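User: Small ask, check this?
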Amino acid sequence: QVQLVESGGGLVQPGGSLSLSCAASGNIVSISAVGWYRQSPGKEREWVAGVIGRGSANYADSVKGRFTISRNNAKNTEYLQMNILKPEDTAVYYCYVRVLTTTGRNPEVRGQGILVTVSS
């Protein structure tokens, strides 16, 4: 099995910054894609950012220019640096990875979610 552990959420004032981390562990051969979703109360899940393979990062228009996704392949860890945060960024953030496992499976695995609250 593959597990994801997220960290770094919390409360921040508007205009502030937070960095989220997501560490993957388990029977992983390789990770082909990483990314983040978020979901605010009463709203549908929104894709935020992602990277496929060694390609360029892509971002939702709502976060472009403010958020940066990165990954450390050696540590099987991805990050989301969030700057110039706005109250509308308040949400539970979920990381995801698409992995190749030692059993030959290729699932997308999602983290348990971490709360980010932007408020004064």
Summary: The two ends are 40 Å apart (CA to CA). The chain has a mean pLDDT of 95.
